[in-house]
Design a protein that fits this description.
The chain is an alpha/beta fold. The chain folds into 2 domains: 2-209 and 385-398, Rossmann fold, CATH 3.40.50.2000; 227-383, 3-Layer(aba) Sandwich (Rossmann fold). Helices cover 45% and strands 16% of the residues. The chain is built from 15 helices and 13 strands. The strands form 2 sheets. It has a 7-stranded parallel sheet with strand order 3-2-1-4-5-6-7, with helices on both faces. Helix 10 (272-275) links the parallel strand 9 (262-267) and strand 10. Helix 9 (237-257) crosses helix 13. It is globular and about 65 Å long. The protein starts with a strand and ends with a helix. The relative contact order is 0.11. The model has no long low-confidence stretch (mean pLDDT 93). It holds the Pfam family Glyco_transf_4. Keywords: Transferase. This is Glycosyl transferase group 1. Residues 17-213 form the Glycosyltransferase subfamily 4-like N-terminal domain. InterPro entries: Glyco_trans_4-like_N.
Length: 402
């Protein structure tokens, strides 16, 4: 098949959840299909860094449009569209898409994330099957954020923004998912949440995955017995909330019993709010590393204290694939079908429970390693990217034969 992907930013370097998903899909699918990729790019340096993608697809990069905070605030109040639908409008991109559609015979056009749905609709008007890879039930993320932030007086402005956005997103997601030929979600939970807002078309579950060969445990495992690890994009609101909660509410309980415990935070683009969380000899922030994989093998326990967000978190799969014992909130582990608490990981939702679960894994290493080994087997069998792309291609087959 000849397939055109539309992406909100380059899929390489694969250093965030979105880029990781796009890159792995492109890499795996390029083995059997001829791929094009039309992408927005935030800068010249990002365009230069993305050039290795030409190994897997015909790459075209378009400068991303820019909006300042004043423009975002104004459209939050005046536009019926959600903020996410207003991030990517570009006449240059529309023209480039029209040119590609005019000069190539594509079997399918796929938009990656809700920002690009407007362009999938444009392709559909050319009579080409158009699909959406919906990374999250976005309205749910904003709904949960509003519910979390309204509990803190200092976060009232963020709660108000999310309360406005989640209603707009629900309307927009319902329209887009009912209009396009297919939509893919990353978890059964996301499918259920979109069905609740009256998405009538079939929603195919194509979960996030992990490269189980790249993310494999070092043997012997040379970890620091006192180090906890958190990874992720450090400008992503749910990750920032998770870190604040863990550092303020959970870590002091752990250190009260085990004072030598420290937290290592590894990820891209830390905001000033994240950088302020650093504490000498207690909390170490390691930004913008080429790969997070080596840090899993340095940690005794991976912590996933998520209180908002959704979908299947790549960092969860990566931790499990590297045999890193894991403690997560229930929300942090959402979407991973077949993941069994006390068999693959520990789940805890209050500060006291989360602290005790973490201490259990720190103290009882044989138990912790048994969980981690079972988790590795589970992830490699069910969530390797090769298996994930097979699910996507099966869904595509329904379009071509439907």
């Amino acid at each position: 098949m000849r397939i055109l992907f539309l992406t909100p930013y380059p899929a390489y370097p694969a250093n965030s959840g979105g880029t990781q998903r796009m890159f792995q899909l492109l890499r795996e699918l390029s083995r059997q299909h001829e791929l094009w990729c039309l992408s927005l790019s935030p800068s010249h340096s990002a365009s230069a860094a993305a050039q290795p993608l030409n190994r897997y697809c015909h790459l075209t990069l378009i400068p991303a449009p820019r909006r300042n905070l004043t423009q975002r605030a104004w459209t939050t109040l005046t536009s019926p569209l959600p903020d996410m639908a207003l991030r990517a409008p570009s006449e240059t991109f529309r023209s480039a898409l029209a040119s590609l559609l005019n000069t190539n015979r594509f079997d399918l056009v796929q938009a990656e994330s809700i920002e690009m749905a407007q362009y999938a609709l444009q392709a559909q008007r050319w009579g080409i099957p158009a699909t959406l890879d919906q990374w999250n039930a976005e309205y749910v993320l904003q709904q949960r954020a509003a519910q979390t932030d309204r509990q803190q007086l200092k976060r009232w402005h963020a709660a108000l923004y999310s309360a406005i956005q989640w209603r707009k997103l629900a309307r927009y997601e319902r329209f887009v998912c009912n209009q396009l030929d297919q939509t893919y979600v990353v978890s059964p939970e996301d499918r259920t949440m979109l069905q609740k807002i009256e998405v009538k078309k079939t929603l195919h579950v194509v979960p996030n995955g992990v490269d189980s060969q790249q993310f494999s445990p070092n043997m012997p495992r040379e970890y620091d017995p006192n180090t906890l690890l958190f990874t992720g994009s450090l400008d992503f609101r749910p990750n920032i909330d998770a870190l604040r909660w863990f550092i303020q509410e959970v870590l002091p309980l752990i250190r009260a019993e085990r004072p030598e415990t420290k937290l290592m935070i590894v990820g891209r683009a830390p905001t000033p709010a994240v950088l302020q969380l650093a504490q000498p000899s207690v909390i170490d922030i390691i930004p913008n590393v080429p790969s997070v994989q080596p840090y899993f093998n340095q940690a005794a326990v991976f912590v996933l204290p998520m209180r908002m967000g959704g979908g299947v978190r790549l960092k969860l799969l990566e931790a499990l694939a590297t045999e890193t014992p894991l403690v997560s909130t229930t929300m942090g582990a959402d979407g991973v079908t077949g993941l069994v608490p006390n068999q693959h990981c520990l789940l805890a939702d209050t500060p006291a429970e989360f602290a005790q679960a973490t201490l259990k894994l720190l103290h009882e290493r044989q138990f912790a390693q048994g969980l981690a080994m079972a988790a590795r087997r589970f992830v490699a069998a069910n969530y390797d990217w090769q298996a994930i792309t097979e699910r996507l291609q099966q869904a595509w087959g329904e379009i071509s034969h439907g």
